[in-house]
């Protein structure tokens, strides 16, 4: 059985990341009107970062060592994004009296605070992150994003360990 080459896999993974971001922006945010919370935005940044790593890998199409470096970076970035998906799932599972207070809108964060303070607030999340706005098959959006990060990490690991 002939497996696809690394370039095809990398470009396909990049396209999947692009599709995930397009769905998040055009379907969930604009069509359904769901505003992303702080952790949602953080997860989007990680999806974009994984996608960019795979895109650069596919366009560069390096030899084995370079491919392993790209694969390692993509895998680590996917694991980083997974952390924030898990954090949001944890917030969604908290009893109502333990949910942190809601913060200001994201646009206001970058207007009122320094970039480092705003990014720190994005990474922490707030009460808005605990709200389940959408589900499919009983799994909330950060659960599906976690599934996506796990799949992307598996792709990265496959390319990292591939002979």
UniProtKB/TrEMBL annotation:
Topology, Cytoplasmic side: 1-9, 63-68, 163
Predominant place of localization: membrane
InterPro entries membership: DiS_bond_form_DsbB/BdbC (IPR003752), Disulphide_bond_form_DsbB (IPR022920), DsbB (IPR050183), DsbB-like_sf (IPR023380)
Entries under Gene3D superfamilies matching the protein: DsbB-like
Cellular component terms (Gene Ontology): plasma membrane
GO process terms (BP): protein folding
SUPFAM superfamilies according to UniProt: DsbB-like
Residue spans crossing the bilayer: 9-29, 41-59, 71-90, 141-161
Record carries keyword Aminoacyl-tRNA synthetase: no
Disulfide bond entries: 37-40
Entry membrane topology: Multi-pass membrane protein
Subcellular location, record wording: Cell inner membrane; Cell membrane
Keywords tagged on the record: Cell inner membrane, Cell membrane, Chaperone, Disulfide bond, Electron transport, Membrane, Oxidoreductase, Redox-active center, Transmembrane, Transmembrane helix, Transport
One Gene Ontology MF term: protein-disulfide reductase activity
Residue spans, topological domain Periplasmic: 28-45
Keyword Cell membrane on entry: yes
PANTHER family hit by this protein: DISULFIDE BOND FORMATION PROTEIN B
Family to which this protein belongs: Belongs to the DsbB family.
Entry function: Required for disulfide bond formation in some periplasmic proteins. Acts by oxidizing the DsbA protein.
Protein name as it appears in the record: Disulfide bond formation protein B
Biological source species: gamma proteobacterium HTCC2207
Gene name, Swiss-Prot/TrEMBL: dsbB
């Amino acid at each position: 059985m002939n497996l696809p080459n690394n370039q095809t896999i990398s470009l396909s993974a990049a396209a999947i990341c692009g599709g995930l971001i397009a769905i998040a922006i055009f379907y969930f945010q604009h069509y359904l009107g769901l505003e992303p919370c702080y952790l949602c935005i953080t997860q989007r940044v990680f999806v974009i970062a994984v996608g960019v790593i795979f895109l650069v890998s596919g366009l560069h199409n390096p030899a084995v060592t370079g491919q392993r470096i790209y694969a390692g970076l993509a895998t680590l970035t996917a694991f980083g994004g997974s952390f924030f998906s898990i954090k949001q799932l944890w917030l969604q599972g908290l009893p109502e009296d333990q949910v942190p207070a809601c913060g200001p809108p994201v646009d206001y964060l970058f207007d009122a605070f320094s970039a480092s303070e705003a990014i720190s607030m994005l990474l922490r999340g707030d009460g808005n992150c605990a709200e389940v706005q959408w589900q499919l098959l009983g799994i909330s959006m950060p659960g599906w994003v976690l599934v996506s990060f796990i799949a992307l990490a598996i792709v990265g690991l496959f390319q990292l360990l591939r002979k």
